């Protein structure tokens, strides 16, 4: 049989089929009579020659993951140019080019496939899963990666009260990790958690459940007798504060400062120079664990250059042919301009379906009691929904390519067609009648007041990462058409998130509408407070529920029911009868209480791809934060030519 190196099997090659789509384990290649001859990126040639790095065969795991390219085996070299708003704003897209996790969602957005882990096995009750890791896998500094790093993550970070004083259920209730042997680790929970793998492969892909123990133990109080003294010498009060300043579960945060040059990673690219407020530069990881079907170590692209630009400058950079790939933050409003310049700019525009337009969540738990009284009144939110001319929004903002809709996760197996149409009829008479009923009378200027007669104004602080100023102007006109005064101010994403967490914002918009796999993974995306990064409302409610009433504030009955259902949801098998019942009830509770108000859905998503960027999947089912953006589409195989 010819060697794989000679064949360079692609996804179209039906002879190179393993247990999972588009990838092979080393045993599967051998069983097919295929052999691998490993080859190295010339980027590392000098370091190998000088002895600074071992040869590629010694850097790879004994069991590398073999990836089948979309088009062809690539060529090494080059720098891919990308852009984000800032270091922690709109950067998830570029993080997803580098990211790894124990498992991965295949590009069908249905099948979960191995990644860092080679395999997994559940127990009969879905309260424990055992992962098999790859022999000889190494961190980017060459230190061994393995079971101890997973155990350290759970036992010494997640379950350490100094580092994690508040209990978290993102990995299941009371999650623990136990070493079985050098390549097998068990993660267990107090209750069944059959959605764990889906979580890890989708919205949880940003929070990988392992950490480099060999690096972090030197500053951890449980491992270092001098941890506190070292922390004080470094300017921190305690070892925990120093640790927290370096480690972050949001993986991208560890590359915000020069410390990111030191912290090892398993990602395809590692931080190369100290980041600034203007840029970050990443270099290929010499110990990355994947190879292509010709035995070439991935990634092909030498460097990832990320520039931080505002929305206008990002568009200008695209038009000037300065950006190789851009998904996050691109808008359909800019599509005609981008399309007009595409030939000159040397790029094409992919249009995956299924993106959702902006949504509004009025802050039901606003810190200001007078505003809370208004926003928590269902009549107010219903009036807002009727005041919105969704058909006009679709025509003006989305070229009539979308569909007017209420806020609803798309393509749910437990939804009904009429759910998306709930209370979306444009009816100013209904809206005005409801506001009148609330006692919000109109003054001589035509603007409504609080029921006590004092002036009422909606302060709408928005980020252009999530909505255009034109959309805000259009919506403000709708509000004013029923007598509601609006003061709209553009803010940074960081500012809107801080205000959301402080419960001082009137309107919150940062809800990346989840799909069913992401709900399986993390049902909190469809229950208060909906977004950990930028809560919509109800932080105190969740605290109350999690503490059995000891903290926070008591939620209304409908929110209590949502929390109880969400807790049970995590324990039921996806697709089961009870799963369908819970999902249906959560839809009803969200719609009946208009927790989030939708505008337009089913919008094509423009994605910029430079013509010289290869192995990019051309028919992506969707591109979304809750699927890990590009993570399912295997950016480590991209190459420039």
Task: Give a structural overview.
It is a single chain. With 641 residues, this protein is an alpha+beta fold. It has a domain of 241 residues: Dipeptide-binding Protein, Domain 3 (Dipeptide-binding Protein, domain 3, Roll). Helix content is 29%, strand content 14%. The chain has 23 helices and 24 strands. The strands form 9 sheets. Strands 3-13-11-10 form a 4-stranded mixed β-sheet, covered by helices on one side. Strands 6-7-9-8 form a 4-stranded antiparallel β-sheet, covered by helices on one side. A 3-stranded mixed β-sheet has the order 1-2-12. Strand 4 and strand 5 form a beta hairpin. The protein is globular, with a radius of gyration of 25 Å. The N terminus is likely disordered.
